[in-house]
Every structure is written in structure tokens, then in C-alpha cells.
Design brief:
The chain has a single domain, classed as Phosphoenolpyruvate-binding domains (TIM Barrel). The radius of gyration is 18 Å and the shape is globular. It is built from 13 helices and 10 strands. With 286 residues, it is an alpha/beta fold. Strands 1, 2, 3, 4, 5, 6, 7, 8, 9 and 10 form a 10-stranded parallel sheet that branches. The chain has helices at 5-11, 26-32, 51-61, 64-70, 93-101, 114-122, 146-152, 156-162, 183-195, 206-213, 222-237, 252-258, 272-283, and strands at 17-19, 21-22, 39-43, 78-82, 105-108, 165-166, 174-180, 201-204, 242-247, 262-265. Helix content is 42%, strand content 15%. The two termini are 21 Å apart.
């Protein structure tokens, strides 16, 4: 059975996953753990990198009753982590620590070119011999699986088999989401998808894009919408889900109709946006 609920939603009809950015706090974990999200992203880019707080929040996210009812080893609410380092920093250790706690995926800020995309995917994979299938991107993740295997409910050897990136490895349970947050990234998106395998989601960073375009937080700016449309078009062409970071009650219908598939509800503490998105799917019979 698929452990990663976000991947499960992306693989299922209609191929849409609902998530939210949340701070790594116990109260948030308990609150969002009872929502109808497929998963959540603990936001540690613009909050302190507190690995203890992240571990505690992930533990309080677990719902034993729901796990039993599902007949699964995995919690119904799938945790991912947005790490602090931008793509140009070519960082790996933040991802390694989050994955070692049991996170099911990493959101990488500000990925602008193929080298940065390659590093992001490679950091989420264990090394292997070049003769093995799916060798590239060559894994860089250090070996310390005990805590993650326990969190997933697997033996260490079982964890190794499933702790790889989807969709490069179809049975992989780790989702690599790249944030496209600058014009360079938008212009390079097709090249990245051609040159780097293992990219699971493209998530548009509207805030940073509007800063560069000179229209801070003007989410209806025509130039911003043009860039977003380009990322969405390329993502569809490569069958890579494209994410929208600000699903609201007002825009839920529109962004679902456009074809965005990784939907992040906003405001973050208000489930009305999430409810609106679910209702749009119900109205479509999905």
C-alpha cells in the first residue's frame, strides 16, 4: 500500500493533492492532522531550523486510530518539510536531517537551473553503484535510517527499498518538490525537466516572483500570471504536477480548472479554502 498520501492523491483520479504550509509546532500538527489535507509541509525556510520542534510536531501528527482504520502503516496526513537553503547554496544536510526523522518529502526553495535541480534530487537519494537501475541523479544522502524506518513502520531493509524518489522509482515514497521562484527558474524549467529525472512537483513561489517583477504580492499582475502559465504549460507537457501556493475560497475553482495539482490552502489556519477545493472536486464528480 502506498505510504505517502500526497503521492497517492497525485496517482489517483483526478490527480490532485491538498496540502498546507504550517509551522513545526505541536498545536499545528494536532489541528491540521484532523483536516482533510493529503499532507502538509512544515515550513522551516522562514522559521528557525529547529530539528527538535520538527520531530515533536511529526510525532503529534500521528493518529493511531486512523492508521488502524486505514489498514496501513502510514499516517493519513503525510509530512513534508520546506528547508531553509535556496537552490544556489547547493545544500544537502537540511534535507538529510528532515528525511532521517521520517519526512516523506522535501520542498526546495528557489531552484533556478538544472545543476540545482540535480542536487535537490540527489540529496534525497541514497548512493548506489552506476550499474544499478535509475542511477542518476547519483545519490548523496548519508546512511542513518533508524528513526525514519520507525516512523514509517518498516524494517531498515524495507525502508531502503521504499526511500527513493517518485516518480523516477515508481515504488518510491519520497517526493521532491522544487520551488520556481525567479525568472531564471521559469525560463529554465523545460531544460530542468529534460535533464533531471526524479522531480515530483513544481511549486510556483508567487511571493518571490512578484518581488523580482516589481509588483510585490500583486498576485493578479499580468506578468506574474504569464510566468505562472508557462510553468503550468511545461509541467503538463512533462506530466509533472504543478503546485499553487495560495488556494483560497475565491480562486479554488479557477486554479483547479487551470490544471494545478498540488494545492496549498491559504489562509493556513482556516480550512475554508481546503473545503472550497474539495467541494470543487465533488461538483465535478471526482
Amino acid at each position: 500500500m502506498r505510504l505517502n498520501g500526497i503521492i497517492r492523491a497525485l496517482e489517483s483520479d483526478p490527480g490532485i493533492a491538498f496540502t498546507s504550509f504550517v509551522q513545526a509546532e505541536i498545536e499545528n500538527a494536532v489541528n491540521f492532522g484532523q483536516s482533510s489535507n493529503d499532507g502538509l509541509v512544515f515550513e522551516l525556510e522562514h522559521n528557525p531550523w529547529d530539528i527538535t520542534a520538527l520531530r515533536n510536531a511529526m510525532q503529534f501528527l500521528l493518529q493511531r486510530e486512523q492508521i488502524v482504520k486505514m489498514g496501513s502503516l502510514a499516517n493519513p496526513m503525510t509530512p513534508m518539510v520546506r528547508i531553509p537553503a535556496s537552490g544556489s547554496e547547493m545544500n544537502q544536510w537540511f534535507a538529510k536531517q528532515a528525511l532521517d526523522l521520517g519526512a516523506y518529502g522535501i520542498v526546495w526553495p528557489r531552484i533556478s537551473n538544472s545543476a540545482e535541480a540535480y542536487n535537490a534530487v540527489a540529496a534525497c537519494r541514497y548512493p548506489r553503484l552506476p550499474s544499478r537501475d535509475h542511477y542518476e541523479p547519483a545519490g548523496l544522502r548519508g546512511d542513518a535510517p533508524m528513526a525514519a524506518a520507525r516512523y514509517w513502520g518498516l524494517s531498515q531493509q524495507e525502508y531502503y527499498k521504499r526511500a527513493d524518489v517518485w516518480p523516477l522509482v515508481p515504488e518510491g515514497e519520497i517526493l521532491v518538490a522544487l520551488m520556481i521562484e525567479d525568472v531564471q527558474g521559469v525560463n529554465n524549467i523545460e531544460t530542468m525537466l529534460k535533464e533531471v529525472e526524479g522531480i515530483g512537483v513544481l511549486l510556483i513561489g508567487e511571493g518571490d516572483l512578484t518581488q523580482e517583477l516589481g509588483c510585490p504580492r500583486d498576485y493578479e499582475n499580468p506578468e506574474l500570471l504569464r510566468h505562472m502559465a508557462h510553468v503550468l504549460e511545461v509541467g503538463k507537457a512533462f506530466n509533472v504536477p504543478v503546485g499553487h501556493p495560495h488556494m483560497t475560497k475565491q480562486n479554488a475553482q479557477s486554479i483547479i480548472d487551470q490544471g494545478f495539482r498540488f494545492l496549498m490552502s491559504y489562509p493556513r489556519r482556516d480550512f475554508s479554502a481546503l473545503d472550497a477545493g474539495r467541494n470543487v472536486l465533488k461538483s465535478k464528480g471526482q
